[in-house]
Specification:
mainly alpha, 7 helices
Length: about 120
């Protein structure tokens, strides 16, 4: 059996580095940073680390809401596909910056894209 994406990208250290860098990019992006104005970022970063770990096949310590429930308030604020695309852009840029191989970036993107409908409440 092959290693999970979580293991292939470098495990906990890689996920932690990716999430930290990812949120620096997201919070500096005028297109989407308003969605985080009232967010406790320490808590958000911890939840995102747990979620990426789980989604990429690592240990399941994610105890947050499902994607639809977690993002419903953002949809009410006007979040749409263009915002999701901006987040995807930052995910890809983050993984590139961390020298993750292209095939693993594509695999991670596929996982993230699989949540698009739920995130956008479609």
């Amino acid at each position: 059996m092959s290693d999970s994406l979580y293991e292939r990208i470098g495990g906990e250290a890689a996920v932690n580095a990716a999430v930290e860098l990812f949120y620096r990019k997201v919070l500096s992006d005028y297109r989407i940073n308003r969605f985080f104005d009232k967010t406790d970022m320490d808590s958000q970063i911890a939840k995102q680390k747990a979620f990426f770990t789980y989604a990429f096949g690592g240990p399941n310590h994610y105890t947050g809401k499902d994607m639809r429930s977690a993002h419903a308030h953002l949809v009410k604020m006007g979040m749409d596909g263009s915002h999701f695309d901006a987040v995807m852009e930052h995910l890809g840029a983050t993984l590139h910056e961390l020298n993750v191989p292209e095939d693993l970036i594509a695999e991670a993107a596929g996982i993230a894209l699989g949540a698009r409908s739920d995130v956008l409440g479609l």
